């Protein structure tokens, strides 16, 4: 090989070696950059992995706690349902018992009212009989033409005849209400007498209890009202 060709070949080899060296350096730098990038990615991955593991542990703990809460609520729900059912049963029992008490109360009220009416009727009957059986009243019936009738259980009707000499058919009458707890009351007088006169006669009877005197005074008031002025 001629010397000039040898020199050219050596120059080409040197140039090739230089380019190869540059290429290898470049590849090495790229590799090192790739390795650094990989390491950074690995570090990021490890950080993310630790974060995910920590979050996973937290979620597992929260899941366990939630499961316990759900189990507790289910137990409480069952217990509450049982209590509600027991309360509903007791409520129905109370309503039934209340209905029985209300029925008994109404029956007792009716019984008491019935007894009260019986006592009141008996009292009125005794009062009427007492008025009729008194000797003074019997004497008034004969002498003054007095007639006593029971229009109603609580009412006595007194009728006087022989009240006017000039008119043998003239009559005077009044009713005595026995039902009032505060005393007697004159009602439906014929002829009509004033409220003041009736009140005075009622108070006289309540104060003295003298029935003959009451009948005598009432007859006089009725006759006075019957006669023209």
Attribute tags:
single chain, 229 residues, Copper Amine Oxidase, Chain A, domain 1, four-stranded antiparallel β-sheet
What is the gist of this entry?
The chain has 229 residues and is α+β, with helices and mostly antiparallel strands.
Verbal overview:
The protein is of the alpha+beta class. Among the domains are: 83-144; 145-226, 2-Layer Sandwich (Copper Amine Oxidase, Chain A, domain 1), CATH 3.30.457.50. 74% of the residues lie in helices and 11% in strands. It has helices at 3-133, 135-143, 195-208, 211-226; strands at 146-152, 155-160, 172-177, 185-190. The protein has a 4-stranded antiparallel β-sheet with strand order 1-2-3-4. A hairpin with a 7-residue loop joins β3 and β4. α3 (195-208) runs antiparallel to α4 (211-226).
Cα separation of the termini: 191 Å
The CATH top-level class label of the domain at 145-226:
Alpha Beta
Helix content: over 70%
Please mark out the parts with pLDDT under 50 across 5 or more consecutive residues, or reply none: none
Output the radius of gyration: 63 Å
DSSP strand content: 5-15%
Specify the structural class.
alpha+beta
CATH topology of the domain at 145-226: Copper Amine Oxidase, Chain A, domain 1
Mean pLDDT: 77
- The CATH homologous superfamily of the domain at 145-226 corresponds to Chromosome segregation protein Spc25
- Give me the count of strands: 4
Shape: rod-shaped
**Lateral strand order in the biggest sheet:** 1-2-3-4
How many distinct helices?
A: 4
């Amino acid at each position: 090989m001629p010397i000039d060709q040898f020199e050219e070949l050596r120059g080409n080899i040197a140039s090739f070696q230089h380019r190869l060296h540059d290429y290898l350096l470049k590849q090495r730098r790229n590799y090192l950059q790739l390795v650094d990038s990989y390491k950074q990615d690995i570090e990021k991955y490890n950080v993310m992995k630790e974060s995910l593991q920590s979050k996973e542990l937290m979620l597992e703990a929260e899941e366990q706690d939630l499961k316990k809460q759900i189990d507790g609520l289910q137990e409480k729900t069952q217990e509450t349902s049982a209590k509600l059912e027991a309360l509903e049963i007791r409520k129905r029992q109370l309503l039934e018992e209340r209905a029985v008490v209300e029925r008994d109360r109404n029956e007792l009220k009716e019984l008491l009212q019935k007894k009260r009416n019986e006592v009141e009727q008996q009292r009125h009957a005794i009062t009427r009989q007492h008025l009729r059986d008194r000797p003074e009243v019997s004497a008034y019936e004969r002498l003054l033409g007095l007639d006593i009738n029971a229009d109603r259980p609580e009412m006595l009707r007194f009728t006087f005849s022989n009240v006017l000499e000039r008119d043998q058919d003239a009559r005077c009458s009044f009713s005595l209400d026995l039902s009032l707890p505060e005393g007697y009351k004159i009602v439906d007088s014929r002829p009509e007498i004033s409220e003041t006169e009736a009140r005075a006669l009622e108070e006289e009877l309540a104060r003295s209890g003298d029935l003959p005197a009451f009948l005598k005074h009432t007859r006089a008031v009725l006759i006075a009202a019957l006669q023209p002025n």
